Amino acid sequence: GSLRELMELSPETATVLEDGAERVVPVEEVDVGDRVVVRPGEKVPVDGTIVEGDSALDESPITGESVPADKGPGDEVYAGSLTEAGYLEIESTAAADESTIARVIELVEAAEGEQTDTEQFVDRFAAVYTPIVVVAALSTMAIPPLLFGGPFTEWFVRGLTLLVVACPCAFVISTPVSVVSGLTSAARNGVLIKGGTHLEAMGEVEAVAVDKTGTLTTGDLGVTDVIALNGNGEADVLGCAGALEARSEHPIASAIVDFADEQAAESGHRKITNFEAITGEGVRADLGGVTHYAGKPALFADLGFDLEHAHLESDGGVATGLADEERLQEEVADCEHGSYLDLVANTIPRLQQEGKTVVLVGTEDELEGVIAIADTVRPEAAWTVDRLKAAGIERVVMLTGDNERTAAAIGQQVGVDEVRADLLPEEKVDAVRELREAHEGGVAMVGDGINDAPALATASVGVAMGAAGTDAALETADIALMADDLTRLPYLYELSSTASGVIRQNIWSSLGVKLLLAVGAPLGYVSVLVAIVVGDMGMSLGVTGNAMRLAGVEPAEPETTAPTPSDTTEPSTDGH
Fold this sequence. Notes:
- This protein is an alpha+beta fold.
- The protein has 20 helices and 23 strands.
- The strands form 4 sheets. A 7-stranded mixed sheet has the order 10-22-21-20-11-18-19, with helices on both faces. Strands 12, 13, 14, 15, 16, 17 and 23 form a 7-stranded antiparallel sheet that branches.
- Helix 18 links the parallel strand 21 and strand 22 (about 480).
- The longest helix is centred in the C-terminal third of the chain and has 33 residues, at about 490-520.
- It is elongated.
- The protein starts with a helix and ends in a 7-residue tail after the last strand.
């Protein structure tokens, strides 16, 4: 029923726009590259990219996100999404049978066909148990009347009762019905579990290894602090930096340019000449006839600025939000005669300690300002770590290729137990192996599903973040969180733990009741009616009803607040 609901989310027809005319066709006939029209209140029929129009889209069937996502030209959309308002024209990027939701349904169906270790044990047990029960029932029917002259009808009924009581229906279905309930419940909440084996394994893990960039952080760089020096204003610093960085393709340069544009710093109106990218250091260009520089502190140290007493090893940053104005004013007040070099000496170490990338702006003769860049820590990251620990996870470890200082800053902010930094992909694999050796219950690795593929494959359970629309993530991970939402991780663990408990309850309760009735049946204490109502039909309904409890496990939602300067971290390591 749950899978049928998912399949019914995608409409059967699509409105295709050809030469300015609209034509309604079966969704199976929509080809890649066709332009599809979606009106307010309609469902998106195919995966595609918006080429015209804006709308809020309810993507909960695919991602599990209850809040509609605002989409516009260039954004990806998924089949089955519902347009809240607004007219859209979408260019199809996948055939109907290859859409994200179609693959999810296919993978869930395939997953339900896989057997867990418990199911395999049950099948092996039943293969031995059932013949023994049949022989015992036939013996109960035949031996007393033939050898001891007992009434045939009475012993026949007792043997039949034993056969009914001992029928392993409830025992055999106790695990698969729980697995199916767990898998489909997860799929409705935006978590794709690719088999009962992974559902069981996730419930047993004792440690969780988490990638940093794109997992604990958003992966999007932004300006966090702008400090103007030597009589310049913030708009002057941003305008200069934005103009200098406009021709650079570096991610940090893009963050500065975007922020300058947002602040209307008029960087685009300043003409620059003789632009040059200084590899690993920054950029240089003539602005208003004067050569200006923007780059890491080491660039200005090379120009002769006395910054040795400041921490010059800036290698990147991560966060968003603006500088703490009160703290900044205190730092300025502490500087003798307002010396900007003293200010830089005090400020640069603080910004770097917070894990931010520091970019200085100025000429060969003077510094004009300091800009700090960082990647945003997800507002739900700390809540997720706390929730995992409260749910029973013994250890949460952050694995990252970034430098030790930045990693430590983020690790302290989100509350992980251990930080391992400067790791190459193969070193992440070694770290996961060490964790598996230290934790018998297993280790879950959470990453992006592509860059962390070796570590995901090494872990007991590999969990991919933000897998919606990503073929590689859907195929490589054991479990895929369809939305880019960390809150689904505690839900996944709690669902898997609950499912493991339900499976154990079903197995032992079905065995216990059947054993009790099987002992009483040959002795005449159990009637055929009791055997059917309690031992057979009753227990089958009982284990099924118990498994259905998994549908009631819902993701918890944290109370999030807007990021602050301390919500930032993660320096980039590419030497800008």
